[in-house]
Design brief:
This protein is mainly alpha-helical. The protein has helices at residues 2-20, 32-46, 50-58, 69-81, 87-115, 121-142, 147-159, and strands at residues 63-64, 67-68. Strand 1 (63-64) and strand 2 (67-68) form a beta hairpin.
């Protein structure tokens, strides 16, 4: 009876620890503040309110008063990374940028497919493809636990020709 009770308590304790464990991405040697700031940039573009920003930018061919959206966010990612960083932080930054970029492309093609009049059909396939990529990559990023998981993000991007190396 005591042995059964110990086993039950052990299983219950293990289940409790697993269910209460913080599941956010914890990659060793990635500064927590940097990871939070980079994820915030990714979440910026995934935000439904971003559609209004995108509408404004794309209706002006991607620029507004010499403002380059892609360049601005590239600079933001680089600022967060800073001048001193670990190899894991650089990999994490790259992966966050790839996820951010893919989401941006998904929303851009979705915008074109909804706002191109008779040419809408030209963009629907790319919109659907990039939406799938963006959602898959976001899931991969937010569930990543190791640099191997991050490397898989890069592999996915290369395999789907989202980025090239």
């Amino acid at each position: 009876f005591v042995a059964v009770a110990v086993i039950i308590i052990g299983v219950w304790t293990a289940a409790w620890v697993v269910s209460n464990f913080d599941t956010k991405a914890q990659i060793e040697e990635v500064d927590d503040d940097k990871s939070k700031q980079m994820l915030a940039l990714v979440d910026d573009v995934r935000n439904p309110n971003f559609d209004e920003v995108l509408d404004d930018l794309l209706s002006k061919s991607g620029k507004a008063e010499d403002y380059s959206f892609l360049e601005e966010y590239t600079n933001k990612f680089n600022e967060i990374l800073g001048e001193e960083y670990t190899a894991e932080e650089k990999l994490y930054c790259d992966c966050c940028y790839y996820v951010w970029y893919t989401e941006y492309e998904a929303k851009r093609y979705e915008w074109f497919s909804n706002n191109s009049g008779l040419l809408n059909y030209l963009y629907v396939g790319k919109a659907n493809r990039y939406r799938k990529y963006a959602d898959t990559l976001y899931e991969m990023l937010t569930s990543s636990k190791s640099d191997t998981d991050l490397k898989n993000i890069k592999i996915y991007c290369v395999d789907h020709k989202i980025i090239t190396e």
